[in-house]
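Recap for those who missed Tuesday's class. We walked through two folding examples back to back. For each one, the amino acid string is listed first and its predicted structure tokens come directly after. Nothing is annotated here on purpose, so try labeling regions yourself before you check the end of the notes.
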Amino acid sequence: MSGVDGAAGAVARLTGRGVGQVRAVSGTVAEVALHDGGRGGNGDRDRERHRDAGRELVMAKRAEGPGAARAEAAGLRWLAKADAVRVPAVHGYDRDWLVTERVPTGVPDAGTAVRFGRELAALHSAGAPAFGAAPPDGPRDAYIGLAPMRNEPAASWPGWYAEHRVLPYLRGAVDRGGLTSAEAGEVERVCERLPELAGPAEPPARLHGDLWNGNVLWGADGHAWVIDPAAHGGHRETDLAMLALFGCPHLDAVRDGYQQAAPLADGWRDRVPLHQLFPLLVHVLLFGRGYAGRTLTAARASLAG
């Protein structure tokens, strides 16, 4: 089954609750009403439950690949354990479905953005065992969007970033015709110079891992919430660079809040293109040459910086 087909049955099975109305949100996500009674969520955080006419609403997401629901559930729980950025509670998952708390949304404003920046800094400061470390109970072979993403632990960021976050997607992009071999050579030169381009050494941060604007929900509670993670241990500047990649409401306020809580190392602005290479190459791999120009611009800016 695809789309929202089977969402009601999956929610009933994974929550032990009776279900009511099912509303399609997208091709793979559904909003499902739970009847009162039975057991609730995972208890990670005491939150007010959001109800509609006596029914709790949850989100059911269809997994797009083997192990995808497990990886996302483990990532959400790992991020939630930092007690920093708001994360939807995980109600349950199986091979095909992930069921999470529904987040009522509001309107982004500068105050919420500053708070989000501080909370994001606290999330990163919670740390990770290594660069490339998977969340506890999460698979080594995970995903970023629809693209496979391997979590391979390493002690040093520059070499790990090149080997596991740039070059695999670069090779795939060339194989699929998204980049030419000559264009790929420009990205390879960035990888060769990564030790000198990376900036001061930092400890592994606890990353959301796919922090573009679409994965930030501006909650009705006055907090920003994050969804759909590709969580792993990485460099904190990567999350911030990804947040800037496709635009974010009140981005300067988010950065201000972050800097108040955990100032970034000198030169961080020059390194934004370097950290954007990873998500840009993922987009070239998945969607083709439409993202090739931005990828090459980021590679050249990295070398110039």
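Example two. Treat it independently of the first, because the proteins are unrelated.
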Amino acid sequence: MPGGLIALLDDVAALTKIAASSLDDVAAAAGRAGTKSAGVVIDDAAVTPSYVVGLSPDREVPIIAKIAVGSLRNKLLFILPVALALSALAPWLITPILMLGGTYLCFEGAEKVWEKLSGAHHADEVIEITDPKALEARQVGGAIRTDFILSAEIMAIALADLTGRSIGTQAAVLALVGIGITIAVYGVVALIVKMDDFGLYLAKRPGGTAQMLGRGLVRGMPALLRALSLIGTAAMVWVGGGIIIHGLAAFGFATIEHIVHDAAVAVGHAVPAIGGILEWLVTAIGSAIVGLAVGAIVVLVVSRFHRDGHGEAQVA
């Protein structure tokens, strides 16, 4: 009996080591996958604050919490199982689906650019919504739809790094990446939008340095939120454009990707001291140009159908 107990304990210890090794493997894979998707994560963090600008300050954190819950639902209930199924059964479908999502991001970004240039934008629709709950629901819904595309890109990048792994490992890594990135992104967003409240707190504290810092935060927040709104719009077109460029390359149309890559490398080599930053910047600008062009085409098509629809309604 003692010998059997010792053997059982040895088996338990061996299983524990295997489990610990598997967890380490999953954590390491999640870390690598999360690092590779860092660019899209930054874009996600830049896009989200624009959805709470202009809303009641006491609803900012609850709204961000709703968006975060929607983001988790996107990643874990929809994107993760679909990504695993497509990876196992129809991996050729992943790229076209991502390109459709990228096109939607380009449309969203180009539409915002058109709104700023033309003055005819969704702000009028928002003003017409007098029910705070309806306005909040509209903003949360828009943020979750945009998050869905960005989350799909994040999960696709993570999945691409898991080729050859078991489906259990893939699922565990994708879940870990999804949860970790959601907490990080929306935690940062919550800090950003409540920074003015922290500034007010500091401004009321004794001590000249704290008060000066607090007043600076309060005065600087409107400019920061406007800047984040612009960055968010730019992020939509450069991420969407990048998805389309990579998708075209995957289907054998790599000319645009080569042009952007060669231009980025040339500029980076011209100024080696900041070569990496310049390469990223040129790549982002090239992707944004493509994204803006694609988005503008979609905006024109959608606006044409919108006008036709109104015309038919008026005739009826």
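Answers for example two:
The CA atoms of residues 46 and 228 lie 6 Å apart.
The first helix runs from residue 2 to 36.
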